[in-house]
């Protein structure tokens, strides 16, 4: 880790060079580096918390002056119960993950003694731009080293003191490992993001960790691929045949268990047939949790006739804009899906509404019908599409990834919650014995065999081969430089 | 297929809407559309060739006036022996490929009755920008329909007449199939590329098919992901222990079998120990094929002393720029890798040269040593890295994909030759029975199981389940809307 005032170009070039060394380090060396980082941060706890306290003091002052939000101040605090220990445990969790590097994904016999392999490898150099939370530095450092990627980190200025302390501890720790220090660079110079975003010859992937504004700004100012999501406008479509208790439970969890999360529900679509049966129970439960409901005409009419006076008075009118809004708060927009002559038509209206309004993050259907659920899952163009489950399951930990790089609404590479695999790409390797393409063309003497060779997801050091292949290769290698045995 | 003069916004919106219908069509409907296109083009052969003749006449005239290159005129000609039939066969070949859509890639039991699946699906809307070759329209139309993606096509103005005829034939053919016509749009309006490249809310992936200039211009003017490669600067590193006959054969094939191809070799790195043994034989063979050699000082000295007078006189001096040049011609730059105290150091110098100078496309090592080859394959940061084989194997047909979308030097999504898989992404599906996240948090009553369920790459219509799962789901579905059986 270098805490650097170097120019963006120097930073990016050094990271690129370091990345090539890191990419070929065995997993043991990468894991040893994670152990060293863990131990250094554990030993430096008092220094880190003291530095974090300085950041907090400044931020609290700024918040009192109205320049910073209270929620940002909260996110800055590393001293909160369990947060520091969670950060340390996170490093060990990443260390414990299976090595994503060097996995043989496909293997094909092109011809005798000519084998094609697709093998996983690191992407190269990541640029991580994040706001506030100082524990991200340890998290990203772990993910980068484990996956064999170099990383350039640029944090928010609110956490400068914490970053300085954490990064010099990590830097000293790395110096005693095989991981080149240039593989992790913390940029503290101001106003360098614009320059870094231009360096597509050195930087392969940008990962913004922050709010909508940060992500949108970055996406619009670089031709480097950006992994992430700007919005999380999630919807639930509750059909008339859904059990009421399931609807109540799933919708309340999706809205209230963490309203500020990107996977919280923002829009509820309700079958017209369910307006007087399911919806009132759902509304009562949501109102009891303090949720504001913004309803279209039909659902408002139904609710005001069914709810008691107090609750009925709390129902607000929805505007068209409400169905395009990520509230990130205890507010839910409610829209009626009109009754149609057949069940599929109503479903298609709900799908069309979601594809037009949602942010392609996570959407759910509540129904007893498997055929309707399958049509919904195929038709909704979102990264996660659920049947009878809370939208809040969209999360790397819950998906069993062990750790989460972020959530992506991209249409290429990685979609939905992204684990360590999202930091990997592959390369194509051919092992030949002197073959040339001319022999396989028209008038050539050879034909491609294109036989799939089954692979486990083993790390292939020197590739498993059958006896025939081994013999062929042995003979080939026994030749001298003059071409004869 | 609409041959359209609509605005870019209208085109992109229509393609997006069409894409959602196409995405859920069964493979039989997509294959039927390919049959219809094939038959329509076969029946319309005379009309197409007449239109192509009009393009050719205009282009030949322009070429005589110096406004167009002769090679572009050649690429325009659909009447060349076998080209039309190849185009038709290409459609049937794509039809015959396995359906890439709806493959279950991962399956995980999150908890009882809570199953997570990762399933392949189309990306959405592709924008294909191409130069000259009119057969690309049939090729791209086939790939898009087979993979379930909508496509907007913008061709070069040289082939306008061919495109008009081909696209109206395809349009009429599609009208009788289940594939919405809006899924394939040929834009003939001028100067719309800039507008289309801004429409990232509708267009998911840009695929340029053309020269370096086209690709670079597009990459620099859009935040939509671009799949492709600008350059193909490929290298071969020949080590002293490589059999001479292998070196001659592989290098001659890599350079001369199609010098204008992106996978042709442009730089030869030679061990100092091989300058007087292997290199002269390689040089003789290349010179005999008309290749110009641009050599660094050491390799030139060695060659001029070893070659006969005539050949020696043909050796030119290399400039530093030659090692950064994609000649696309019968020219090869030659660089010496100095002798070092151990074999690995020389290897690392070659790897460092390639990582710094090559375009990360395809690079090869010629050696008898497996350990050196493995280090080279791990260390070189290119999409294809070969041991003892011609760089010209980097090709979708040769890799057994059946068809090729293009060759990518991107570091995310698809790398190297790209088959139909490169047009696919995935979505995450959860099938639940009313689960909520609150039950799995601290203080919750449930624990995630995260059990991998083995999957074949079967198309899962209604997912295979075990008996226990089926029972659980049956019971759940038997409940009425009031939550009781």
TrEMBL record, chains A, B:
It is an enzyme of class 1 (oxidoreductase). Transmembrane segments: none annotated. GO terms for molecular function: glutamate-5-semialdehyde dehydrogenase activity. InterPro entries: Ald_DH/histidinol_DH, Ald_DH_C, Ald_DH_N, Aldehyde_DH_dom, GPR_dom. Its EC number is 1.2.1.41. It catalyses: L-glutamate 5-semialdehyde + phosphate + NADP(+) = L-glutamyl 5-phosphate + NADPH + H(+). One of its GO terms (biological process) is L-proline biosynthetic process. Residues 11-316 form the Aldehyde dehydrogenase domain. The keyword Ribonucleoprotein does not apply. It comes from the Eukaryota. Keywords: Amino-acid biosynthesis, NADP, Oxidoreductase, Proline biosynthesis. Gene3D superfamilies: Aldehyde Dehydrogenase, Chain A, domain 1, Aldehyde Dehydrogenase, Chain A, domain 2. Pathway: Amino-acid biosynthesis; L-proline biosynthesis; L-glutamate 5-semialdehyde from L-glutamate: step 2/2. Catalyzes the NADPH dependent reduction of L-gamma-glutamyl 5-phosphate into L-glutamate 5-semialdehyde and phosphate. The product spontaneously undergoes cyclization to form 1-pyrroline-5-carboxylate. Belongs to the gamma-glutamyl phosphate reductase family. This is glutamate-5-semialdehyde dehydrogenase.
